[in-house]
Amino acid sequence: MATTTTQPAPASTSPRTLTGTLIGQVVSDKQTKTRTVKVSYSQRHPKYGKYLHRDTRYHVHDEHNACKLGDRVEIAPCRPFSKTKTWRLVKVVEAALPPIDAIKNPEGSEAEVKTQTQA
């Protein structure tokens, strides 16, 4: 009887691939370390064949409060943080543009420009 020993497989040096990631838009950032992300998708009706546009909202854990309202983000499933929060933020794909009210003209605010053109 010969005994055989098996060598353990070498550890992989490549980073772990994420499965089940989704890309959505942040629709609420009012909570601390929690964001609400809306993921939109199209679904075909089984009988009529028409494509229906649906969306799902997920509560996402954002440890460093990195994303803001309107950002496009990538999220991945994880262990439950709370009753409804079972997703975590992977990265911010695209930052949102600032609101139009926050954009200032180089000469002054938009209200001043409007009063000058009326006079």
- Residues in helices, as a percent range: under 10%
Low-confidence stretches: none
**Average pLDDT rating:** 85
Structural class: mainly beta
The succession of helices and strands, N to C, reads EEEEEH
Describe this structure in words.
By secondary structure, the protein is mainly beta. It has one helix and five strands; from the N terminus they run βββββα. It has one helix at residues 110-118, and strands at 22-31, 34-44, 51-61, 72-77, 85-94. Strands 1-2-3-5-4 form a five-stranded mixed barrel. A hairpin with a 2-residue loop joins strand 1 and strand 2. The longest helix is centred in the C-terminal third of the chain and has 9 residues, at 110-118. It is extended and about 100 Å long. 9% of the residues are buried.
Structural topology:
Layout: E1 22-31, E2 34-44, E3 51-61, E4 72-77, E5 85-94, H1 110-118
Parallel strand pairs: 3-5
Antiparallel strand pairs: 1-2, 1-4, 2-3, 4-5
Quickly describe the structure.
This protein has 119 residues and is mainly β. Helix content is 8%, strand content 40%.
What are the key terms here?
119 residues, 5 strands, mainly beta, five-stranded mixed β-barrel, single chain
